[in-house]
TrEMBL record:
Annotated catalysed reactions: ATP + H2O + xenobioticSide 1 = ADP + phosphate + xenobioticSide 2
Membrane-related topology note: Multi-pass membrane protein
Protein name from the UniProt record: ABC-type xenobiotic transporter
Domain annotation ABC transporter: ranges: 304-528
UniProt enzyme class: translocase
GO molecular function: ABC-type xenobiotic transporter activity; ATP binding; ATP hydrolysis activity
Keyword rRNA-binding recorded: no
Keyword Cell membrane in annotation: no
Keyword terms, alphabetized: ATP-binding, Membrane, Nucleotide-binding, Translocase, Transmembrane, Transmembrane helix, Transport
Main subcellular localisation: membrane
Length: 856
């Protein structure tokens, strides 16, 4: 860092005092410069690679923490957040916190750069360097105000992005309903409107960034003008070319710290929102672990026992508890039916046995393992077999018995891949009856001691429901303890115990015959309502049959009925549709290079010509300005009758810099506006394709995969690429004016760089694609777990799902690590190559032709 400042002054000194006797000193200087640059590039490459490793590890840590917290959230805590908001914590807020790591590094490194620059200025300018320190303090203070304005815009960007992602997630998850009602365009316009709001804030943020860039580029110029003015006014001592170039180089080096120091501090405030969201999420209440006392199966003959239990979903609410005065004792092997009207507390009773409802008083004892079948089926994205096994080892005989008992064999025979068929997200390509039977099969295969069923036959017709009751409850689970919530009164005579619930209490309990003979209200009303409903259903069926005979059935949308009684539309409206291939395909990576027409299309859309011209003008003005200043310095300070005064020189220097920086600001604004317009155009096209796609496309592509595309901004590094290329060309042209032999050093440099490119670009391109492919499963797994956390906890599968989450996160982290390693590989080689080229150029330049002006 210091060597680059000092080398300019030393180089100018060699130009002015060149002789043959001192050439060995010049060789020594060039060699020392090469060693210093090599050490610098090695250290910087190592630091950047270490920062990337820290970023990857921090990301993995935060994703794992958020995932584990989501798996242990209580139902009351989860109600405060949507699944989309939790996914945003992983995809947006975690990434923002990771960006802070690099800024924190810039904070201390930028402070060190300022101190070294002030030290060099003090050696050259003496007391006048105090003004530089004062100017830096003022500029940093002003930077805070500008960055505070940018922070407000960025917070609005985050809020609008959260709103858009929430709407997109909810829309994708309910796309089938939207298509059935022909509401796709209405919701698409809503999402595009949210994107428009986000883009407006992004553009405002881009204008703020361009203003900050203009300010930071002009800041060193104003510091230089103020310093030169003070120096010439008080000292009047002439500056030679080497000192002038050194001062300009130091001021240019101050440009980065003036931006990085306040930006790092401002970043601390900007990520406060992300920190607060993640910390508040991690601080939400977990599922209490003292609700249920778990005992081994051999500890007692009583499988379930609740004594004076009172439970409430919200223990702080003044309302009466959800369940109160519950006393229940279920012996091992009993079949218990829970009946009651809607809202009587049937599902809450199962939830309190699972430990999902906070306990106010009483005790719950559970002896043995448990399995749970929810009222709303939860199906994990993946193969049918994996959903049934659910972490257990495969046993062929046991597996076949479970399929037979759950009437799934007929459905699997319809598929080319059988139970290896990939099912869509949340089982969207399955009928409700198939999802329910798959849930039951998953529970049966666990071979648990206690089974809790929450209305398992509600999605089945009478024939299939009777089959399941006979084969599952009375057959496969004949020796197991079963607690079943049901509205099918016809199954009650076969149960050992019937519980009738009303208003959160168990009002009646006993065998079917005892309850029927009881004079207490409750079960009789329920039985009468069921009988009336059955009579109404039979009357409705007779009307439908008579109308069908008169009108006749149309061929479109004709229904066929399977032997198990489930109806499936022939046009694919329900059930599994066999297309001769897996419905959910593995995400494919593109191969090969990106065509040049893609870059040209982007540049032409983003007004690339304006950007390139502005960049060329800026670099030419920068080079011409330095040359003018150094030449004029000699003309003003080294002549008795200078052609113009020093203050006129400073004014010209200031105006040229302002004009050059205005070109940069115009470039930044045009590029940002056009880039966001291009991104919005691509965004609208992508979402139009998604909303117009058939349902089969949405079934075969999980939501996490689509959300991964919707999260990304379609922006490129056009600005940095054009700036680097044009800056390199201008630099080569400037050095070739001093010694044309410099061009000989750049020819092998360019050739070797192309060789590196042949290795780097294919690997980096594929690694970037791999990172995109491996990111979607992480998002999908988080979404699946959040929606199915109760089922996962009821099967005691938390550890397995946590291991899966860590494995998916590791896969994604590996792709990011290899990308970082590939970048480090390229960086260290290009930096070493650049150092060698600079040293070779220096060998040519330190022996310039006679009469060469040092300002060159």
């Amino acid at each position: 860092m210091v060597a680059s400042h000092v080398s300019i002054s030393v180089l100018a000194f060699f130009f002015e005092s060149f002789d043959e006797r001192g050439k060995y000193k010049q060789y020594y200087f060039a060699s020392t410069f090469l060693v210093a640059k090599v050490v610098e590039c090695l250290l910087q490459s190592q630091v950047q690679f270490m920062l990337q490793r820290i970023n990857i590890r921090t990301r993995a840590l935060m994703v794992t923490m958020i995932y584990n917290k989501g798996l242990t959230l209580s139902c009351r805590s989860k109600s405060a957040l949507t699944s989309g908001e939790i996914i945003n914590l992983v995809t947006v807020d975690a990434e923002r916190i990771i960006d802070l790591i690099g800024c924190l590094h810039s904070l201390w490194f930028g402070s060190l750069s300022v101190l070294s620059a002030l030290f060099l200025l003090q050696k050259i300018l003496g007391f006048a360097s105090i003004l530089t320190l004062a100017a830096i303090i003022v500029l940093v203070t002003i930077s805070f105000s500008l960055l505070r304005c940018q922070k407000i815009y960025q917070e609005k960007v985050v809020e609008s992005k959260h709103a858009r992602m929430k709407a997109t997630s909810e829309t994708l998850r309910n796309m089938r309903v939207l298509k059935l009602h022909a509401w796709e365009m209405k919701f698409l316009n809503k999402i595009i409107g949210l994107r428009k709001v986000e883009t407006e804030w992004l553009k405002k943020c881009a204008f703020a960034s361009a203003s900050i860039s203009f300010y930071l580029l002009t800041a060193p110029t104003f510091v230089a003008v103020a310093t030169f003015t003070l120096y010439m006014h008080y000292y009047g001592i002439p500056l030679d070319s080497g000192e002038m170039l050194t001062i300009l180089a130091v001021f240019e080096k101050l440009q980065a710290p003036i931006y990085e120091i306040p930006n790092a501090i401002s970043m601390l405030f900007r990520v406060n929102g992300s920190f607060d969201r993640i910390v508040s999420f991690l601080g939400l209440g977990d599922l209490p672990d003292d609700v249920v006392k778990r005992l081994p199966r051999e500890a007692s003959d009583t499988a379930i026992e609740i004594v004076e239990g009172s439970f409430s979903w919200d223990s702080s609410s003044p309302n009466p508890p959800t369940l109160r005065d519950v006393n229940l004792k279920v012996d091992r092997g009993m079949k218990v039916a829970v009946c009651g009207t809607v809202g009587s507390g049937k599902s809450s009773l199962l939830s309190c046995i699972l430990g999902e409802v906070p306990k106010i008083s009483g005790s719950v004892v559970l002896c043995g393992t448990k399995a749970y079948v929810a009222q709303s089926p939860w199906i994990q994205s993946g193969k049918i077999q994996d959903n049934i096994l659910f972490g257990q080892e495969m046993g062929k005989d046991k597996y076949d018995r479970v399929l037979e008992a759950c009437a799934l064999k007929k459905d699997l025979e319809m598929l080319s891949f059988g139970d290896q068929t990939e099912i869509g997200e949340r089982g969207v390509n399955l009928s409700e009856g198939q999802k329910q039977r798959m849930q039951i099969a998953r529970a049966l295969y666990q071979d648990a001691d206690i089974y809790l069923f929450d209305d398992p036959f509600s999605a089945e017709d009478a024939h299939t429901g009777s089959h399941l009751f006979k084969e599952v409850l009375l057959g496969h689970l004949s020796s197991k303890t079963v607690v079943c919530v049901t509205h099918q009164v016809e199954f009650l005579p076969a149960m050992d115990l019937i519980l009738v619930m009303k208003d959160g209490r168990i009002t009646q309990s006993g065998k079917y015959s005892d309850i029927c003979q009881s004079s207490r209200p409750g079960f009789g009303d329920l039985f009468g309502a069921h009988t009336l409903s059955s009579n109404d259903s039979k009357a409705l069926e007779s009307v439908v049959r008579s109308l069908s005979k008169e009108i006749g059935e149309t061929s479109s949308g004709k229904q066929t009925e399977h032997k198990d009684g489930n109806k499936v539309l022939q046009n694919g409206g329900g059930g599994i549709t066999d297309l001769g291939r897996q419905l959910v395909q593995e995400e494919e990576r593109e191969k090969g290079g990106v065509g040049y027409h893609v870059y040209w299309t982007y540049l032409s859309t983003a007004s690339g010509a304006v950007v390139i011209v502005a960049e060329i003008v800026f670099h030419l003005l920068q080079y011409g300005n330095k040359k003018l200043l150094v030449w004029a310095t000699g003309a003003v300070f080294q002549q008795d009758n200078p052609p113009f005064g020093a203050f006129k020189l400073i004014v010209v220097f200031l105006l040229l810099n302002i004009f050059g920086f205005a070109c940069v600001a115009a470039r930044s604004i045009v590029l940002a506006v056009k880039a966001y317009d291009t991104a919005t155009l691509l965004f609208n096209k992508m979402h139009l394709c998604i909303f117009c796609a058939p349902v089969s496309f949405l079934d075969s592509n999980p939501t996490g995969r689509i959300l991964g595309r919707a999260l990304q901004q379609c922006l490129g590094n056009v600005q940095s690429a054009t700036s680097s290329i044009i800056g390199l060309l201008v630099g080569i042209a400037a050095m070739s004016q001093v010694a044309w032999q410099v061009l000989l050093a750049f020819i092998p440099y360019i050739a070797i760089s192309f060789c590196f490119q042949q290795y780097y670009i294919p690997a980096a391109r594929q690694l970037s694609r791999l990172a995109g492919v491996t990111r979607a499963p992480v998002i999908q797994h988080v979404a699946d777990t959040i929606s199915g956390r109760i089922t996962i906890r009821s099967f005691d599968q938390q550890l397995r799902f946590q291991e899966t989450a860590m494995r998916l996160t590791d896969v994604y982290s590996r792709s990011k690590f290899h990308s970082a390693a590939t970048m480090a590989w390229l960086r260290v080689r290009l930096d070493l190559l650049s150092s060698i080229v600079c040293a070779v150029s220096l060998f040519f330049i330190i022996f310039p032709p006679p009469g060469t002006d040092p300002c060159e």
